[in-house]
Amino acid sequence: MATTAQILANQKNSKLSTGPRTDEGKAASSANATTHGFNAVDPVLPHEDRAEFNLLLEQHKSDFDPATAHEEFLVFQIVGAQWKLNRLQRIEVAMFAALESPGDPVTTDAMMVQGRSRTRTPPPASRGSIAIVPAWSAPINAVPGNCAPRENSKSKPIPPNLLKRSSQSS
Question: In whole angstroms, what is the distance from residue 5 CA to residue 13 CA?
Answer without folding.
Answer: 12
